[in-house]
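Q: Sequence in, structure out?
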Amino acid sequence: MHSDPDTCDLLVIGGGINGVGIANDAAGRGLSVLLCEQDDLAAHTSSASSKLIHGGLRYLEHFAFRLVREALGEREILLAKAPHIIWPLRFVLPHERHLRPWWMLRAGLFIYDHLGQRVRLPGSRAVKLAEDNPLRPDLLRAFEYSDCWVDDARLVVLNAMQAHAVGASILPRTRCIAARREGAWWQVTLQTASGLREVRARGLVNAAGPWAAKVIEDALDLPSPHALRLVQGSHIVLPRLYAGDQAYILQNVDQRIVFVLPYEDDFTLVGTTDRDYRGDPAEVKPTRDEEDYLLAVIGHYFRQTVDRQQIQHSYAGVRPLLDDDDSNPAAVTRDYTLSVQGQPDQPPLLSVFGGKLTTYRRLAESALAHLQPWFGQMGPAWTAKQPLPGGDFASPLALEQELEEAFPWLTQAQRRRFVRSYGRLCWRFLAEARSAADLGEMFGAGLTAAELGYLCRDEWAQSVDDVLWRRSKLGLHLNAVEQARVAEWMQENAPADS
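A: Exactly. Output:
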């Protein structure tokens, strides 16, 4: 066991999906790992996605076959690793003659079905739309195919928890402000809530997402090997537009596609947009034009009319894409590039440019392969078959039945949410309870003091946003008074160093 808290084999900058994925894989291979994140885990890009684990059907148009094949393979692996936060989702793709032709869609879906491994998910098929479907009555034909839903922020937190369980130090709200090479080490200065901290690392991983180039140039005082193109993607949340568990993938006249997804039982999630972004990635917000764009797509395809007053919530994220000089933001590659700077006799710097949720695990394996020359003692890859925390159960339905037997006083809504958020981890805050009263104060939507205490203690939550918008989406279900009470409770009870 590594004993010196101020030295480590690998220091990872960035607590998004790529950073925690690399930290988790490295720690499980026997390296001592410290991860620092300037804000909360998944505070930015990794919690602002379309919530999908998918191969990327539209990437086939840009001939990104390697990326799609890798993503389709990972789709199967992740579905097995995290059945509590990832589950199958059936997509309906309605056809309009003046957009992509029928034969092109059929060919693309055939490739999508066969390019990568597909074991758990059914393949695509052509369908006739029923008369009572929620789309315009003149839309008669469509395709169906499968991908997966994911709770993106929880995917990040669960990887961080697994990394911590195998020895990694996870430091949210800790910023790397300077790093320099000194002999065989990186000497790193961290800014924490209590002041500056100096640590030494044998290797440095820059997984700062939209800030990756800035970290290299400002904190490390080195030239960045690649430029990033920051592309803003925004989403809106509407009241539920239709019954059923299916999602829709809609083609717009500008050749972009928009996803329409069932969300948090009572809502519909619509996104995303693609527009170049210049500014601080932490300050990104949906624009009125983007919201109008998404509303117009819904208005074009759905029978139900929608307007701005129906928007319940909106969010935006900045995708840090490798700048390939394409004039169309939607066409910029979603693939990732790993860059290693450092001679064999120098401590390495590995930087991550680009990437997507679905391929984070493969990206981590590739990153450690690049670092192998400096860390010959590391063990083999291990994450492909290891469930994420809470994911060791046969099926969500079986686990929900197990919860009902163990805690019959839980509501059905609580049981379902606990299975879909925590899997077996929910026993950590339920195990000692014998009645609903034992869970403490009820804040609304099934959220209790016992669950809040767990999130602060075991999942690094410190603020009301950490709880209501990242580790859960209960912000959609609690009113302003209830949210304020959650904030008060956290100020009164959350440990300062959680």
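The longest helix spans residues 65-81.
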